[in-house]
């Protein structure tokens, strides 16, 4: 994003504090995946890719609903042959004053794909790397991905964030993992292992200590107190999930869920209106113990406007400028 686009993004995003429009969307472009991580329920091996025309229409509709931040999801989105076209279509909206993020396991990265994503205007790639060595829970290890991470560091014109799912196994070696990655120009963050439905599946002092010791991506600052409470087993802190209203998860059937773990209102995206989205601007029965970080991020951001603006400016500062 250029400085002008960043300024326009802040101006437009600030309006979402006051209106009924959506701000953030996660768009699933394929359920197929090249891996089968034990903790993941967000893939279907061999699932077909969505037609690119269908994805373009969904992006058009999300833009009409006010969305300014897009996560492109799978399965594994790098398996979709039209991925650069999807990114470019997102960045053609709002004259580029929006954010396009790709969430990937990174195994399929090539020089050609990175070059195409640079040209499409991708703002951020979140790479899932869980551990130093492959394990029973996940193959997403530093040992397996090191050549591709090196390629990203050398060639990517977008920001790269390394996301680790915090489990008993990954927590035990996370400090070694970060030391081995000290020379990479990346951001770092956690996801918390959760049960089906989204409730956190880990608690204990070892996780709290690790969370407090590490320098993490700025977005986690928006809900760090709640994250500490979750890791200590305290689910009493009040908050309001904005899934289905400000935060939209679009499944492959083109329907709006509250998040990846909860269906909720189950609206058809093509027919959704801001008024219908506003009906999901409410407390939800699944809020207690929720560890779904993406919905937490936007819900806490819009729940604390001043803190959100300050943190948002910090995050945008770290987004690499457009060429």
What's a quick, concise take on this entry?
With 323 residues, the chain is of the alpha/beta class. Helix content is 37%, strand content 14%.
SSE diagram, text form:
Layout (H helix, E strand, L loop, with lengths): L2 H13 L8 E5 L23 H13 L4 E5 L9 H9 L7 E6 L6 H10 L3 E5 L13 H14 L3 E8 L1 H5 L1 H7 L6 E6 L12 H9 L10 H8 L15 E4 L4 E3 L9 E2 L5 H5 L14 H11 L1 H14 L5
Helix pairs in contact: 2-3, 3-4, 11-12
Structure notes:
The chain has a single domain, classed as Aldolase class I (TIM Barrel, Alpha-Beta Barrel). The protein is 37% helix and 14% strand. It is built from twelve helices and nine strands. The protein has a nine-stranded mixed sheet, sandwiched between helices. Strand 3, helix 4 and strand 4 form a beta-alpha-beta unit. The protein is globular and about 45 Å long. The model has no long low-confidence stretch (mean pLDDT 89).
Domain tally: 1
- Radius of gyration equals 18 Å
Which geometry do the CA atoms define?
globular
Q: Any idea of the CATH class? A: Alpha Beta
Helical percent range? 25-40%
**Quantity of strands, as a count:** 9
Low-confidence stretches: none
The CATH fourth-level homologous superfamily: Aldolase class I
> Which architecture would the CATH scheme give at its second level?
Alpha-Beta Barrel
Secondary-structure class: alpha/beta
Q: What is the string of SSEs from the N terminus onward? A: HEHEHEHEHEHHEHHEEEHHH
Q: What is the strand arrangement across the widest sheet?
A: 6-5-4-3-2-1-7-8-9
Termini gap:
8 Å
State the major sheet: 9 strands, mixed
> Helical element count?
12
Question: What portion of the residues fall into strands of 2 or more residues?
Answer: 5-15%
